[in-house]
Amino acid sequence: MRFGILVNEGPFTHQASDTAYQFAKAAIGKGHKVGRVFFYHDGVNNANKLSEPQADDRNLVALWSKLGTEHGIDLVVCVAAAMRRGIKDDLLPAGFRISGLGQLIEAGIASDRLVVFGD
Amino acid sequence: MPMLHTVNKSPFQTTTLESCLRLAKKGSAVLLIEDAVYGALDGTAVSARVAKRMKELKFYVLGPDIAARGLGEAKLIDGVTVVDYGNFVDLVAEHDATQAWM
Amino acid sequence: MQDDDINTEGVVKKFMFVNRRAPYGTVYALEGLEMVLIAAAFEQDVSVVFMDDGVYQLKKGQDTKAVNMKNFSPTFRALDGYDVEKLYVEKESLEARGLSPADLVVPVEVLSADELGTLMAEQDVVMTA
Predict the structure, then answer these.
(1) What residue segments make up the domains of chain A, in order of their start?
(2) Exposure of B70 by Cβ count < 10 A (0-12 exposed, 13-18 middle, 19+ buried)?
(3) ipTM field
């Protein structure tokens, strides 16, 4: 089955990105395809490679980047939400790209299931 | 057409769970995640509200979120099923659509 | 890597956007409205629901000058021009807040929680901001 995921919050203030990541990993583990993860609202902060969590903490920015590149997930950051929050192309880790909100709607059309994670 | 409802807010903090229970149709499933896992506990002020819909709705709670909050040994409302992230994926796949109550 | 191995051309799905937050206090209402406009541009079958504090998004007479934020409530009146005609408000949420349809910036269909739950269960995709 093909899944699309919407992440509405950043990597630290809320658990949403953690839960979305665990969900995506479990879906891939069960042989499903995660076609696209779309980052909206403060979720665009998951694409800031300048983020430096403490050594004993998980690094969601790096984890998403790794999962995306290893499993061919299209990690899309909403351009309008990103510009407002200062997330630019040169901040993006591997596997992420910036594009329009239309990519979220398209993920809703193309996926068998779309799941929202937010706060 | 059964659907899956996820809830991520503590019922002691917001009315999110209440809104979900108001709209959820008979035969659909409710999965309590993140801070909503407190809504799965037995013996609280909201337990009866959840138990009241137990015959019509299937209730699940995310085990990793229960364990993280020190509730691994806590008594849950009768009929609530504990699931892991893999089961979460299965639930999404088994239902036609998912609504996230946040 | 682009997720372009699925052809979405001509596919129309039922998208429901559920708005449950008040405007201005958080950005969810404004950015949620942007999702609705894009879905309409993709010619999807769009329904927009206002319930819980989301009904406050439609309150008439919003004046944001003194808070220096953009008043986006006029956009709800423009939705018709984007072929977004299915606007639903939950009766219970409206009544709990002492509001009636006359207090809202745009004509809506008022549905009970039970009716709204039925409509929600008929959707292909349910989005929440």
Answers:
(1) 2-117
(2) exposed
(3) 0.97
Residue B41 DSSP code? B
C14-128 CATH:
3.40.1260.10
CB C86 within 8 A of CB C46: yes
CA distances from B75 to B41, B83, C31 (A): 6, 15, 40
C neighbours by CB contacts (3+ pairs under 8 Å):
A, B
Mean pLDDT (chain B, rounded): 97
Q: Hey, are the CB atoms on B8 and A19 less than 8 Å from each other?
A: yes
Q: pLDDT by residue (tens digit) across B32-61?
A: 999 999 999 999 999 999 999 999 999 999
One of 3.40.50.1390, 3.90.320.10, 1.10.3490.10, 3.40.1260.10 is the CATH number of A2-117, namely 3.40.1260.10
User: A59 catalytic, yes or no?
Assistant: no
Q: Which of A77, A78, A81, A98 is catalytic?
A: A78
Task: Report the neighbours of A using a cutoff of 3 or more CB pairs below 8 angstroms.
Answer: B, C
Q: How many domains does chain B have?
A: 1
- Whether B22 and C117 lie within 8 Å, measured CB to CB: yes
Q: What is the pLDDT of residues B75-87, one digit of tens each?
A: 999 999 999 999 9
In this structure, what CATH number is given to the domain that contains residue B76? 3.40.1260.10
